[in-house]
Amino acid sequence: LLAIRGETGSPDMRCYLRHVTDEGKFQNMKDFINAHWNISTDSEMQRNILIGQYSLYMTCPLTLFHAMRLLNCVPKNKAIVIHVVGANDSEEFSLMGWEIFLRLIETAMPVTMIVIGSNLQRNIHMLSENKNLKFDFYDMLYENYVRSSSFVKPDLIVGFNSCIDQHKLGSSKETWAPSIKLIAKQNCPFILTSPTLSTFKKETDIINTILGRK
């Protein structure tokens, strides 16, 4: 297990990745941290601060893994391509957490995370230390990525707090409508997270309106 002794900075994921599996059937972030990390501090406040700090690296991969379990969509014997849409610098910040995702889905096949968003800082292509996990970043709207020569068909699409409701449909600043239509055409699961339940309801209403379902 990884011992966190109150230091600041990013956790050393490599120290405990080999201990992470799906066998624990954790129910929330705190369960996961308690199962896999030994936070060595006498202060409850400091402990909670550390849990919050390090959970930033794991929120996206654990959320996606939980959703895939609910959908019974965890391929074991094929390469997986995942599109992360509406991405921003928070996805770049949490890269090391995706090593956990690879361990949790327990696959020896390659996983490619294609991260797309107009607010990304750069276009990059990189391999993690585990050669089965690859990241491709594209600084563009999803509709432009789908129409580009770089497009790779996804097995699953996810948007983490993508702010689909940020601008009113039909306004000059609204950019999601074309992308939502193209996401629907990929014929694969689309997992969407929102910061609150009310925001999620607004965003699903917007998606249904774009797709002519209401």
Name its key features.
8 strands; disordered N terminus; Rossmann fold; alpha/beta
Structure description:
It holds the Pfam family MSS51_C. Residues 61-212 form the Mitochondrial splicing suppressor 51-like C-terminal domain. With 214 residues, the chain is of the alpha/beta class. It has helices spanning 29-36, 44-55, 59-70, 89-93, 98-105, 142-146, 176-184, 197-210; strands spanning 2-4, 37-39, 80-85, 111-116, 125-127, 133-138, 156-160, 190-193. The protein has a six-stranded mixed β-sheet with strand order 5-6-4-3-7-8, covered by helices on one side. It is globular and about 55 Å long. The protein starts with a strand and ends with a helix.
The global form is globular
Separation, N- and C-terminal Cα atoms: 50 Å
Distinct helical segment count: 8
CA-atom Rg in angstroms: 18 Å
Kindly report the CATH topology.
Rossmann fold
| Whole-number tally of structural domains | 1
Low-confidence stretches: 1-8, 15-19
**Under the CATH scheme, which architecture would be assigned?**
3-Layer(aba) Sandwich
Mean pLDDT: 77
Largest sheet: 6 strands, mixed
Q: Count every beta strand, where a strand is a DSSP E run of 2 or more residues.
A: 8
Strand order of the largest sheet: 5-6-4-3-7-8
